[in-house]
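User: Please work through this fold.
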Amino acid sequence: MPKENSGVGWHIHSARRKLPSLERGLPMKVRLYLFFGLAIALALSILPALDAQTSTGTVSGTVMDPAEGIIPNANVAITNTLTGSSRRAPTSSAGLFVFNSLPVGNYQLTVEVPGFKTYHAEGIRLDVSDRLHLIVKMEVGQTTQSITVQSEAGDLQTESADLSNLVAPVQIQNLPLNGRVYSQVLDLFPGISPEGGRLSGGTGLSADTGVSINGGQSNSNVWMVDGVSNMGLGSNNGNAVTPSADSIEEFRVLRGNYSAEYGGGTGGIVNVVTKAGTQQFHGSAFEFMRNDKLDAADFFLNSTGGTKSKLRQHDFGVTVGGPFWIPGAYNQDRTKDFFFFSYEGRRESRGVVQTGTVPTARQRAGILDPTCAMTTGPCTPQAFDPMEQLVDGPNVPQSMIDPNSTAMLARYPLPNADFTVHGFNWIDSPNNYVVHNQEMGRWDHNFTDNTRLMFRYVQEDQAATNYQGAWTDDQFPSVNSDLYFASKNLVANLTNILSPRLLNVAQFGYNARPFGLVDGKTSDPKLLSRDGYTYTELFPETSGSWPRNRGFDGFDSLKHRSNYRNDMEIFQVRDNLSYTTGAHNFKAGFDWSSGRLSEPANGSGDFTAGYFKFRSMYAMLLGNVRSYQ
């Protein structure tokens, strides 16, 4: 049944620096902005804060003369050295300049003041969620003269008290990540403990987000891509999309003390930023493979005489990025339009070793007492069968075996392993076939130096035949399920400089993750149906599925629930307004989010066929049910 939730969050942030002088009073325009911002915040304070995030950084600084006196109205420009785009702002009466919501990248800072040499700071690296503060000391001279310094911005950031770890592109590319999944890097950080001992290399529906950050629950974390939620509703676990390692610029893990902009979770924040195009064309291509010809056989398959599990795995893809550029016609200086595209495909055929304990052929025929120790009627002793798990009870004449019991036993495979040696009597390695594709496209457009638009779209789809991770099926291959998974994550971000000191950032996000399970193409059609069952249903609508068996006398259970579908989508709208005056940098905003989840009412499948419990196999053969529900 559909479930909906929506809410509005608010946040107000003010940064104040201790400087020699302060500007007194605020312009009427600023007072109106702050008044309405505070009014909205107070009106909505009874609602929970939801998913307000940022995927950018901030560079601020103080401009001083040689005697460390502040310099107001200095002309400050910051330029992205990879795209050529720049922004300008004057210093306030307190000598402060602030560039909020800058995209991740490398920057150069230029300061010009009449009577002083032009100041250049190079090599400024701005990472996601950074708040860098620079001290600019001017030298007396002509503006035609210049001084150039190399930025020494270190890891210690006095503008922010958050506890975080940054993962750079070189780490994502060079660390040995299983499945090339970026989240595995979290295993290396302090204060982070994976629930299963380590994060898996799964993607799509198998994406693993089960980590405790600073002691919090795994479903209290917030995962996002470019400032948009990447979470699944319901359990609040799992990602809608798993960005390709080659499409990620960097990501930061915030473990504590983060600002009000990051709401919606009480644990940690995993903030991923995707790559963007630059003034130069760049790209890559890759292929990774595995093959069972290079692997050893499974120990248990070897010991039972089975064949080696099949493994054919290919992980391949391409990336390309650069400027939208038409020589002599459009974007000649390559500073307006940029694109980036990535594709990653996975193809895998893998044999997954499964074991179980199943009845032998003679047990299914009613011979439960091969030594005739418990049978009072006619009985012929039979030889010991090492494949057989012994059960208590006398033999059951075939004429007394319930037809529903025969139908249920037909869904067990026959044993093929020595129970006395292994503790199980059935082993197999059914092949699981997976086709996985992911495409990511990003467009960055600078309308002017004051207005910038970013649009990014990620699409991920996955299809698995004989899906071995399905919670709806047992381990036996005769009846199985196929998985389909198709997710989308997009963001549109508009950054507008309304004045040299006033900045507005508006953002829209959409996140969808539909997936489901259907009857497997490799399933036995006869066993998939209700063939053989004759009992009268207690429930009028069964959707054609057969009942579940909870196991008896140590034999494994049987289950195959009817088809399952889960549809989820989240819409997000947020807006941030930043204003710099005197020694203050004010930031206020709101965030609205609405989510919808549609799935079966019981959360995991259609149970109308019910399930049986039996006290023993003897009772099961006779059709004596302990419970049915």
Remarks:
- The helical segments are 28-43, 169-174, 299-303, 361-364, 403-409, 419-422, 525-528, 617-622.
